[in-house]
Each structure stands twice: as C-alpha cells, then as structure tokens.
Amino acid sequence: MPLKIAVLLYDNFTMLDAVGPLEVLSLLPDADVFVVAETAGVVYPDNQVLPFIASYSYQDVTEADLVIVPGGPGSIAMESHQPTLDWLRNVHARSKWTCSVCTGSLILGAAGLLKGLRATSHWAVRERLTEFGATPEASRWIEQDRVVTAAGVSAGIDMALHLVSLIADASVAKAIQLGIEYDPQPPFDSGAIEKATPDVVAAVANGSIAMNREGRARPRLPRLG
Hints:
Blueprint: E1 3-8, H1 15-25, E2 31-36, E3 41-43, E4 52-54, E5 66-69, H2 75-78, H3 82-92, E6 97-101, H4 104-110, E7 118-119, E8 135-136, E9 141-144, E10 147-150, H5 155-167, H6 170-179, H7 198-205
Parallel strand pairs: 1-2, 1-5, 5-6, 6-10, 7-8
Antiparallel strand pairs: 3-4, 9-10
Helix pairs in contact: 1-5, 5-6
C-alpha cells in the first residue's frame, strides 16, 4: 500500500518547515502526498511571497500514515485553533508517525500529543514545551514512540532522512540524500544558539533580524482558480 503523507498548512507557516521534509519524503517509492488545510485553497506562508495550494480540507483527509506539522509565526494561532487540534488528534490516533518541524511541536503539544515525551523545537521557544507536559531537549530531532519532532526550519530535512531510514532503510535514505545533494557546508558556523555569538543571538531575539513577518503586507497576487 502507498504511504499516505499528510502535510498540514496554515496561514503564516514557514515554507522550508514543510517543503524540506516534503522534498525528501516525496522521493520514497509509493508515497502519496496530501497537502491539507482547514479549508482547501490558497495558503500564504510567513514571507507572503509564494502562495501554496492545499488541495484537501480536514474533512477530506481523516487518516494518514505520516503527518507533518510545520512551524512559523502562524503556529501561535494554531495552538488554540480547535478544528486544527481536533484534526491532529484524530489523524494521530491512526498514524504511524506524527511529526513536527520548528514551532510545529507547540501545535502538537497543544493537541495533547507530547505529554510525557521528550521533544524539541526552535531554540527560541523550546522551553515552552514544558507547558504541554513535554521535556524539551536541544536535539536536531527526537523520535519517541510514534512522534518525531525536529528543531528549527532546516532540521526538518534531517528529520525526514531519518524517517526514510525507518520507513525503508538507510541505503534509501542515503540515496535520497545524494539525489538532492544534501551536503551542508554553510559559510558560517552560526546555525545553533550554542555556536552563535551573543550579538547574533540578540539580533534574532530582539527582532532586528526579522523572523516574524506577520505584519508584512500581503502582495497583490493574481487570483488562483
């Protein structure tokens, strides 16, 4: 049977949180991907420049083998959005893996799916996981029971490769890694708070390097459909 993958979208999600894992997991043999939102249609990410289309609503997708929940500024609203929390609880009941990237773990927590588990998230909000009965850890990804949480944004790619090794095997994961030429060699060693200098941490923490774009004006885009 094909592996049924459901990717949740909502307004002001972070693109790479969803697209990174999806690029990896969609390369699995016999994988069917369902992009889901509360209502099928156009969903805008946090940078507001590239509209996404969710082809399916919550009512259309009531079960999945693997669920991916991205993070982003819009995750704050999702923490108290009952239709989304209810949908997650329902699909999690029958999923093989329920996964999050970045602040998506806070949505899982709000749905009650992280109680008693170790979990991770973006470093800026990681300690908030305690609000939902989880134990926060500074890890690139954490697998516990049927839940896999990843740290901020780019960590979703690492998480997805790990999932491929579980679903298929390590050789398939390695082949996909080579196929997408995922061989990170960043020009700076500042990708973790433990490595970043205080001024860089402050620039992100105080918003001078904008991470939250909720207030940015939505561009004029042609109507789709």
